[in-house]
Amino acid sequence: MPDYLMSAADCEAEKAQLQAELQAAQEREKEPVWIKGECPRGCGETLFVGEGGYVTCSFIDCPEPDAPHKALAAQRTEEVGG
Ligand SMILES: [Zn+2]
Question: 34: number of CA atoms within 13 Å, CB side?
Answer without folding.
Answer: 7
